[in-house]
Every structure is written in C-alpha cells, then in structure tokens.
Amino acid sequence: MIYAAIHYYKWRFIMPKRNDINKVLIIGSGPIIIGQACEFDYSGTQACKALRKLGYEIVLVNSNPATIMTDPEIADVTYIEPLNVRRLEQIIAKERPDALLPNLGGQSGLNLCAELAKEGVLDKYHVQVIGVQVDAIERGEDRIEFKKSMDAIGIEMARSEVSYSVEEALAIADRLGYPVVLRPAYTMGGAGGGLVYNKEELKTVCARGLQASLVGQVLVEESILGWEELELEIVRDAEGNMITVCFIENIDPMGTHTGDSFCSAPMLTISAELQARLQEQAYRIVDSVKVIGGTNVQFAHDPVTDRIVVIEINPRTSRSSALASKATGFPIALVSAMLAAGLTLRDIECGKYGTLDKYVPDGDYVVIKFARWAFEKFKGVEDKLGTQMRAVGEVMSIGKTYKEAFQKAIRSLETGRYGLGHAKDYDTKTKEELLLMLAHPSSDRHFIMYEALRKGATVGEIFDITKVKHYFIKQMQELVEEEEALIRSKGSLPADEALISAKKNGFSDKYLSQILEIPEDDIRNRRIELGVEEAWEGVHVSGTPDSAYYYSTYNAMAEGTAQDKNPVTTDKPKIMILGGGPNRIGQGIEFDYCCVHASLALKELGFETIIVNCNPETVSTDYDTSDKLYFEPLTLEDVLSIYHKEKPLGVIAQFGGQTPLNLASELERNGVKILGTPPSVIDLAEDRDQFRSMMDKLGIPMPEAGMATTVEEALEIAKNIGYPVMVRPSYVLGGRGMEVVYDDESMAGYMNAAVGVTPDRPILIDRFLNHALECEADAISDGTHAFVPAVMEHIELAGVHSGDSACIIPSVHISAENVATIKEYTKKIAEEMHVRGLMNMQYAIEKGKVYVLEANPRASRTVPLVSKVCNIRMVPIATDIITSEITSRPSPVPDLKEKDIPYYGVKEAVFPFNMFPEVDPILGPEMRSTGEVLGLSPYYGEAFYKAQEATQTQLPLSGTVLISVNGKDKPEVIEIAQLFHDAGFEILATQGTYKLITEAGIDAEPVKKLHEGRPNILDLITNGKIDLIVNSPVGKDSVHDDSYLRKAAIKGKIPYMTTIAGARATAKGILYVQKHGNADVKSLQQLHNEIREL
Fold first, then answer.
1. DSSP structural state of residue 47
2. In sequence order, what are the beta bridge partners of 77?
3. Which of 419, 657, 674, 944 could lock onto 580 through a cystine, CB 3.0 to 4.6 A?
4. Are 67 and 28 in contact (CB under 8 A)?
5. 48-62 burial, b if ≥16 CB within 10 A, otherwise e?
6. Distance between CA atoms of 24 and 224, rounded to whole angstroms?
C-alpha cells in the first residue's frame, strides 16, 4: 500500500527531498460550509500522511473537531484553534515551523496564508511558504492581478472590469451590457456573487459581494450564460513538468456554479482537438502562476463562435480535485504534498506508467458527479441554481456507459429516488408546464427534463431552454423510450431481452419494481437466472505498484458470461463497512470519521476490510483506508452483489449514519449477517410505544407522548398532553420535519402537510419541555456493561436540535446528582437493549428531574467530539466489541475508567444562512447547520468565546449591544442586561425590553422597531452602530415579523444570539476574556497529557 510505497521513495530517492526544512505547518479548512466541504479534510489528511512518511514533523491547525484530520495520530502536533492571524501567530511563535503548506486547506488556508504574509508574521518567524507562492495566491485570487497575468501570456478572459463600489459596478455594467456576472475576490463557492439582469439587482448583489470579499473588490463580467463549462485538473512540479490528471465536462452549462453542476469525466462531447487547445492554455496558465502541486483551471467555450475564455483558477486542491482524484485514481493531494517537499513527477514510481510524468488519463469508463442539496431545510428559499453554490454534498458514480453511470448516480443520492422518472408530481404536469419549469435551473432540473421528454418535448425544445447539449438530452430521451416500452408489461416481468437491456442501461432493480409494480425480489431472481449480474472492474491508483478500487457494471458481458476483473482473496477473515453516502445536513463527515476508524481498527485486529461508499469528498473513499474499496451506491442491489462476491463474515452498519441503518433490516432478511447491535433493537428505539414500555419497565421518566396518523388523533393527543408539543415523523435523522406546535390550528396544518404518514410510520407527538436544559451522553456498550465518557450539556434549551445547539463537554451547569442519574439511565438502557457498540442518548432536565427524550443505538455525530475532548478511542473500542463474537476477545468495557478532564470543549454549529439571505436564521428542532467548530480552554467562558471566534464570529469586548426579546424570555432579560452592563457595554433595547431593564436600575437607551418609525434598529445596524445583538424571535403570534433583524445581522456580519441561554454564555465569555486576556494556545496532545484517571 501507500506506506510501503513512500518508504520506497525515501530509500530510493534521497536526492530531491528538501533537507532545509524539518517542521511543516499545515492549515486545515475549518468547519464544513457550503462551498468548502470535507474534500479538504481528505486532502489535508493525505498531505499529513505523505509528509510524515518523508520524515517531516507536521504541525496541524484546524478548528473542526468532526474530521479525522484533527485526530491526535494524524499530525505530530495538532491545534484545534480558531483560524485567524492572531491565533496562528501564537502557534507559529510557539512551534517555530520552517515551512507553511497552505494549498491543501481550501480557501481558508490560502486566505490565511496571504494574510499572514501581509501582516509580516511569516517573515518575522522565518517561515517559508511551500507548494504555492504568496504572489501566486494573489495572481490566482485577486481579480485584477489574474487579469494582468492572463493578458501577459495572451490568454483570453471574459470582458470584465473591477469595481470597489456599487457606483463603479453600475457604470461598468452599462459599458458591458446586461446581464452581467458579479464575482467577489478571495471568496469561495461563489459567495456573495451572482448573475444580475438589471440595475436594482446589481445594487443588491454588488453590496453583498463587496462585503463578502476579503479585499472589498468585485469583478463585473460579461455574461457567458449557456456556454460549455469545462475544467482541467493540472499537476506541476518544481522543474515545470506538467500532467493533466482529468478533463471534466460540466453537463449543465455556464450560469450554474460548478459545485451545483452535474458533470462527467472524461469529456464526452468535446473534440480531441478542442481538448488539446484547452490543455495547451491550461499549461501556460499554471506555468505562469508557478504552482507546485494541483491546480484547477476552469474554461468556458462558446460552441457557436468557438471562443475559449478562462474563467478562473484555483491554485490549491479544490472540490474538483477531490473528484478528479477519485475519478482517475490519481491521489492529487498526496502527490502535491510530495512535490511541495521537493520531489518531481519523474521521481514517483507507478506500476502502470513507470513514473508519474508519463501519466495520461486513460480510463475506459464514465464517471458522473451529481450534487446533493438541502433546500427542504430552509423555508422560503427558492429552489434555484445560479453562480452562488447551494449544494451541501455530492455523489460520484462509475459505469461503463453514460446511461449506466448516470442512473447509478441518481440512486446514490439517497433522496428516495431510484431512477429519473416520477419524481414529486412532475408526471402529472403538461409538457407546457414542465418546459416553463425548466426556464430557470433548479436542483430537480434533470428530473423535470425526463418527464418533459415523456410528455413529447423534443430534444431541440429542451436544448433551447436549458442549453444542455443535444447528446445528453438524446441519451435521456432513449432512457424515457426504454422505460415506456418496459411499462407495457406492467404487473409482470418484462421479456428477457428487455430486462437485460434495462440492466445494461443502468435501471435499478428497485426502480424496475416500482414502474412494473412487482416485487424487487422477482426482478433480482429472474436476472440472476439469466446470468445478468454485476461484474467489477478496477480503477488503478497512480503512484502505486498495483493498488486499485472497484466499480460494478452490467456491461462486462462476453460470450454470455460476465467478465470480472476483481480478484477476491480468502487468506484473511473479511468484514464489510457501509459508508454514509453523500454529505448532507444531519449526516456529515462525523459518520465518515467513524467508518474510517472502524476500518483502521479492523485491520489492527487482523481482518481484511471492505468499504462501500459513493462520496468522492471523503477519507473513507481514499483507496488505502480499507483493504478494498467499492465505489458504489448504498442500495440493497449494490450491497448484496458485493456481499455475495466477497462473502465477508459480517457487515457493520452502525457507523455510517441513517444510510446503512435504513438498509440493515432488508440486508438481514436477505441472509446478511449484521454485526453489533441487531437491526431489531434499532427499530425498537424508533418505535415509541415499545420504547416507552421499556422505559416504564426500567422506571425511567419520559415526557408524555402519543402517535397519530390523522388530524383528529393528533388533536386528541395534544388536548390530553397540553400545548406546546413537539411533533416529528418517525425514522428521521437531523430533525427532518420536526416542529414545536403551540395550538390546534398549527397542529392541523402540520398534519395536513406531512407526507408519507402511514400506520407503520406515524407522526410522534411529545409534551414540549419548557425551559428545560437539554443534554446528551454517548456510551460504549458490550451488551451487559456500558461506559459513558462524559455528559454533554447543550447551551440552547430543549427545542433546538442537538446538532445545532452549542454544547459543553464536560458539563458545567448540571448538578453532580443529575450527571450520575444520566450515566445510570444510559447504562440501564444500553444493557436492557443489549446494545453492542456505540449508543447516543438525549435527555432533558426540567425542574431538576431527568427525562429521556430518545435513544439512538448507533454512532452519532458527537463521536469525534467526545473522542477528542475525552481522549478516548470510541470507535476502535466499539469495533473490538462488535467483532468479539468472531475474535473471542474479552470486552474492553470493564477496564474503562472515569477521567478528570481539566479543560472544557465548547462545540458551536456553523450555518449556511449567508448563502440563503432570504431565510430567518432562528434555531429550532430541525437541524440546519452544515458543520461545527470546537473551542478548548481550562475555563468555560474562554472556551465559549473561542468557539464563537472559530465560526468567524469575533465577539466584541466593548461597544453597543441591542437587546430585544419575546414575552417568554422577559423574566430572564434583566440578568442578561446586568451581565452586559458589567462588561461595560452600552445597551440599546426595544420598547418592552427597555422598560423592564430600566425599571431594574440598569442604564439603557430605547430604540424603535422597524414598524415604529425612524431611525430604527435597521438604520442603526446598517450604519454600523451595533456590535452585538440579543434577539429572541417574537414567533407567529405577533403581527409584526422581526426576522429582518436577524437577517440584517448576518448581512452586516454582526454576532447575534437568538436564545437567552446563548446570550448568557456570550456575556460570560466576554467578561472572562476582558478580565484574563487571551491565554496561551495548547496542542491537543498537550491537553491530553493533563487528563487524569479518577
């Protein structure tokens, strides 16, 4: 594997490695946000691996606790600290690195490197930048510098000019002609930019863009809407040798951000001659910028005039380079790190090409990337795609043909769709209605196109509206025709030839069963009788002698039998791990973290490990995380095929989040051995009646509750329990569809809007615990004993989803007695349910009494957090337990000891509200955060302050605070005002709040709400007169909407707190830092050394 390979380089190629540096600082990318997801954890983790093997000492800085990258084993020294110049200077002063590698930490890493250079920090401590030079970052990111560089080497760009104010932008747009595209400098995911058609739109978007840009600079560019968007992934070494790793064709044309675009590798409709021209231009560009390592170059090509313009370059590993790596088997980040250390492409051996300088992308397969969105999480957001990225994750699929790969991508998405047809209610609409819906790109565009073709739309008509090329629409049309022919045999199996053809074109068993209305098993059994089974082919991993990972295809038939190129070994016992699929809100990289750790632990226990996953951004789909990787959708059809091929001893489903759990029961029914907690136990935890009777038996209190499938039942239950109540569907992750309901009218509205409610999937209704402190505990259980490392206390009260609430570990405000009760309940429940592996428990404490809210007998999103703060290897211990029935090893649980942790970790969630300016940024029971950060300190106040700082919300230490709270929070507002008064803040308050505060003898100034006249709150926020906002929403019982306040806070980048608990923690954090200043930074390894056993 790779370790052996790199040892080989060390031994063989002593010459080129740089010996003038010993210690390298790597900057991570921070929390997962839209536009910067876990692809940078993948690249950063690869870089650490490569450089440590070359003998360098690695210092890593990242604020994200959820990634494998911030585990203490990955780098020599790990700092989980806010990513800003001040904290980095503290770390550099302490660690004294020789070099900084900035181009593997996404935009955050690049921007920070540029700022450190500008502030003179790098010169002061003699730190060299390797991989990409600081001036190259400027040439790549600064729109003026980039244009100058391109002009100098004769590369055409879209006509554009730079503006530093809205007035300048208006004048430029008049010269260029509308529509124009606005692109802020030094941002990512197209943040703050957009396509504008008129002056009013320009004023709004440009103001937003100037604010989003690090340097207050926005490029105004001619529109190249509808052109082809083409990307090349280039790798260059210090000698100027260059290779093209991958050619990527965006199937959606210009106008949709590449992160939202559906795309293919290789290019399927672009001539060899045009590809050669693009490559020649890309090489000139990369050579002029002098990046060492990977660079992504984006072009637009006008198929009418044949004009090529370069749109932008990313002088760093990017989302596209993660895709290119997984699509081709070329580990770009790993190679980039080695090249930054002085090796050249000629020095790196490869089993397939001899050495990497001879690499060419020559796979005989098609790769498709399809994005995953989360529009359903944000009420009031229009599902529209444009130049600002909206996707939260993506899937990648590999097939022999475009049709096969495309249909595999659709069933990988986990949106409940197994094919392209019959999505939502599109099949009930007329052709005209569907064509109208295509006028603006949306996340469902390709599903709408499919139904439009079914209703008789022509390829030409769809091309005219969407500018998706004829070839792709024609392929889709052929799929529609094939489906229509299949439907003629509805109610029975289709003719054998038709079934064979459908499988070759990527139709899944499940989708065929849906359109033919026959059981999926019948289809599977018939095709197996016909010998139509998946065969596997390998993707060679460049830079290794013979490593590969595998994809399935139904197009490997020869002489009637499947030609399989996937050798199966039997020398070690095997275990299969099911991954988490695409990143999305509610199921992020925390689950990938668990899968990776499980794989590494299984290897140590002597097993051969197999991972099945379809997410190109993650560490689990890195070829050497497991012994064997299958890049496949996580559906019954695909997983069963692999299971029958590999014949593992069992499958682990509890680490990948909801994805594998939803499959577990069906797999078990098909004879698959599920290791660890049985699926029946997981179902028991979801079944509220069964779970409640178990709690009654154990004598553990739960809030009063009921289950309903009709409006009448729901109203009856609510009447018995008393409002407010919490309503939610069963079997969900990330609080999907959860709401707090206050009256009959809202209850009826919720029930009528609920989709897919059946007697076996009812709506759950619980008494809402008012002003209750919510907390959770993760446990490791062997079925008879359980261990709880620590209890986490949520800062937000019950009613805010646990994934969105800030949380403190170990807890601060929970009494010792309650902590003991929580640990006791958790152990009792784990033992009663015979949980084998990990479990997460949610509790609420109301008036000193502990209530159980729910049990999740699986890995949860807090596993990495607890593992890091408490220094406990939760997943490896759980893996040891899960496999003990095979290994007969004794349970590790009895040996686990309680620890005294002399510091606090505060986790804070990060939200994408800046990408959705129309959404009210309040917190509720439905999860809406995309990622998280961690603040560590011996003092709770400072840990909270650092966590806010890590979300890029610098809390002010002085200034003016605006306080405006709703009726429910009035009793506590005086305490909050007193804290801010003690901190020396000037207090502004709205009418009711002002009256309460001043009557309590605290100085404050009154301020008008929006509907009360001018100057009002909005004027003050806009004029920069407010530094901090405390605002709990008035709720729907008020006539006047107050969401403008929170939206304005986001727009003005003003820290805002929407809960009293959040405000209290903020004030205490500010008071602590005012009094003690900023303490020294400590590495994770140093903190772990301070933990003592009790």
1. H
2. 59
3. 657
4. yes
5. bbbbbbbebbbbbbb
6. 42
CB 533 within 8 A of CB 553: no
Contact 12, 343 (CB under 8 A): no
In angstroms, the CA 516 to CA 613 distance is 28
Within 10 A of 91 (CB to CB), how many other CB atoms are there?
20
CA dist 583 and 930 (Å) reads 9
> φ, ψ for residue 6 (rounded to 5)?
-75, -35
Specify whether the CB–CB gap between 573 and 606 falls below 8 A: yes
User: Helix 520-529 vs helix 509-516: angle between axes, to the nearest 10 degrees?
Assistant: 120
The answer to whether 651 and 675 have CB atoms below 8 angstroms apart is yes
Cβ–Cβ < 8 Å for 614, 656? no
Taking the chain (1094 residues) in consecutive chunks of 10 residues, what is each chunk's mean pLDDT? 33 60 94 82 89 96 95 96 96 97 85 94 96 83 84 93 93 93 76 87 91 85 92 96 97 93 96 98 94 94 96 84 93 94 94 94 95 88 89 95 98 95 96 96 97 98 97 98 97 96 97 97 96 93 93 77 78 96 90 97 97 95 95 97 96 94 94 95 86 95 88 90 85 68 85 72 84 92 95 87 92 95 96 95 94 93 96 98 96 96 95 83 85 95 94 93 88 93 95 92 92 88 91 66 81 87 92 89 97 93
Give me the helices (H) in 648-798, please: 658-669, 679-686, 688-698, 711-721, 744-753
Residue 1019: CB atoms within 10 A of its CB come to 13
Closest-CA residue to 462 (of 426, 436, 488):
436
Cα(500)–Cα(503) distance, rounded to whole angstroms?
A: 5
Measure the CA–CA gap between 412 and 369, rounded to whole angstroms.
10
> Identity (one letter) of the amino acid at 356?
L
Q: Is omega for the bond preceding 810 within 30 degrees of 0, making it cis?
A: yes
| Cα gap 1003→1022, rounded to integer Å | 24
Q: Is the N-terminal amide bond of 724 cis, ω within 30° of 0? A: yes
**How far is Cα 434 from Cα 441, in angstroms, rounded to an integer?**
12
Query: For residue 760, with 0-12 CB atoms within 10 Å meaning exposed, 13-18 middle and 19 or more buried, which class applies?
Result: exposed
